[in-house]
Amino acid sequence: MSDPSDHKSPPTAPIEVRFRGGGFAPRPHRWMGPVVFVAVIALLECGTQAGWISALTFPKPSDVLGAFGELWESGLLFQHLMPSLGRLAVGGAIGASLGIAVGVLIGLFSYVRAGMVPVVAAIFPIPKIALLPLFVIWFGIDEASKYALIAFGTFTPTVVATYGAVDNVDRSLIRMGQSFGLSWMSIVRKIVLPGAMPGILSGLRISLAIAIILLVAAEMLGASHGIGAYILQAGSLYDLERLFAGVVILSLLGVTLSAIIGQIERRLLRWRS
């Protein structure tokens, strides 16, 4: 009589393990974004054409495109766009650079952290748009108040994102650098800043989105040219086509800034791949 242990079960087929090696890294599907965008626009066009969506509340996308074409042909697009880009560039650059600098100092020095974190925590929840009249009193109705508002609105979220990113740098890498005899500055330059860069760039995405919101608010208060002034003029005339054309310009501006930050991420963070 044979021993049952002599009968071996046939080998099972290998089981495929999902996400092996690549983790949860997303795959690029560049066509999905345009497809969804075109589908939404087509749905809105069909809805407005068929009367499902009232023309009093939402214009036809084709009419918005026509208003955008008139802006381009008349030259008003650049008359409003260029001042807005200048204000956004100056105010955003000031706020982001100061925010990154202060955030890095908070992350590296305990005395700076003890003194600045309560201050940042106190001013971060304040709605920056509510401070616009105060900035007008301080800096006047001209460009300085717009720069200051955008810089202040960009500064606080950049500080929070930056020192949070510095805190999240792997401490084992820092101890490894110390064990190899690297100087303090070398550790900061070669370990801390590269390790914090993903969080800093993610914070910049949010900060620049806030900067666009504050740009529109500042231009609505005291500007003759700018996307915010153009939207305010269209709204006062209840010209929905022009109003939505201005909104589309702001949306494209946000997408463009996000794409620029994405390119910076791919260049600076090649070491992650």
Describe this structure as you would to a colleague.
The chain is mainly alpha-helical. It has a domain at 97-272: Orthogonal Bundle (MetI-like fold), CATH 1.10.3720. Helices cover 73% and strands 0% of the residues. It contains 10 helices and no strands. The protein has helices at 32-50, 61-74, 76-108, 110-123, 132-139, 143-167, 171-179, 184-222, 227-236, 240-268. α6 (143-167) runs antiparallel to α8. The radius of gyration is 26 Å and the shape is flat. The model has no long low-confidence stretch (mean pLDDT 84).
CATH topology of the domain at 97-272: MetI-like fold
Mean of residue pLDDT values: 84
CATH class bucket of the domain at 97-272? Mainly Alpha
Structural class: mainly alpha
User: What is the architecture of the domain at 97-272 at the second tier of CATH?
Assistant: Orthogonal Bundle
Roughly what fraction of the amino acids lie in strands? under 5%
Q: In angstroms, what is the radius of gyration?
A: 26 Å
How would you describe the oligomerization state of the chains in this entry?
A: single chain
Q: Can you count the helices?
A: 10
- What is the succession of H and E elements? HHHHHHHHHH
Quantity of strands, as a count: 0
Global morphology: flat
The proportion of residues forming helix, as a percent range, comes to: over 70%
- For the record, give the distance between the C-alpha atoms at the N and C termini, rounded to a whole number: 60 Å
Taking the sheet with the most strands, its summary is:
none
Low-confidence parts, pLDDT < 50 over ≥5 residues?
Answer: none
CATH superfamily of the domain at 97-272: MetI-like
